[in-house]
Amino acid sequence: RRDWKKKIESNQNNVSKSKLHELQQKMAILKSFSEPRELSDEDVRQIYTHSLLHVGLIVATILLFILPGDSEQSAEKVEEGEVINAIPVVAKIVDDDEYDENATKKAK
């Protein structure tokens, strides 16, 4: 790390400003990863809290897929006649000629 810094300082006249800036950015990024970061008690508490929440969500999702649904209640509703969309939909045949006549009448 120090060798790079010395090389950059000695070659400042030979290197363009943009290239020098790019090298300094790379050094700063590498330096941030090379030095260990100390975690505070608050950071550790947040890590544990978030990990427990994620595990809880995963367990809840798995339980929703494993546990049976309320198929008995829906079967009772079918027998009682309380079904959503119980009225059948009847499709009508559309004649293109009639459609064209109605469209021209409305346009006039």
Low-confidence runs (pLDDT<50, min 5 residues)? Answer: none
Number of strands: 0
Rg from Cα: 36 Å
Strand content range:
under 5%
Task: Please provide the ordered H/E string of secondary-structure elements.
Answer: HHHHH
What is the makeup of the main sheet? Answer: none
Annotation field: number of helices: 5
Morphology call: elongated
What class would the helix/strand composition place it in?
Answer: mainly alpha
Portion of residues in helices?
55-70%
**Mean pLDDT across all residues, rounded?**
75
First CA to last CA: what distance? 84 Å
Can you describe this structure?
The structure is a single chain. This protein is mainly alpha-helical. It has 5 helices and no strands. The protein has helices at 2-10, 17-34, 41-66, 71-80, 96-107. The N and C termini lie far apart (84 Å).
Give a brief outline of the structure.
With 108 residues, this protein is mainly alpha-helical.
Task: Please outline the helices and strands.
Elements: H1 2-10, H2 17-34, H3 41-66, H4 71-80, H5 96-107
Keywords:
mainly alpha, 108 residues
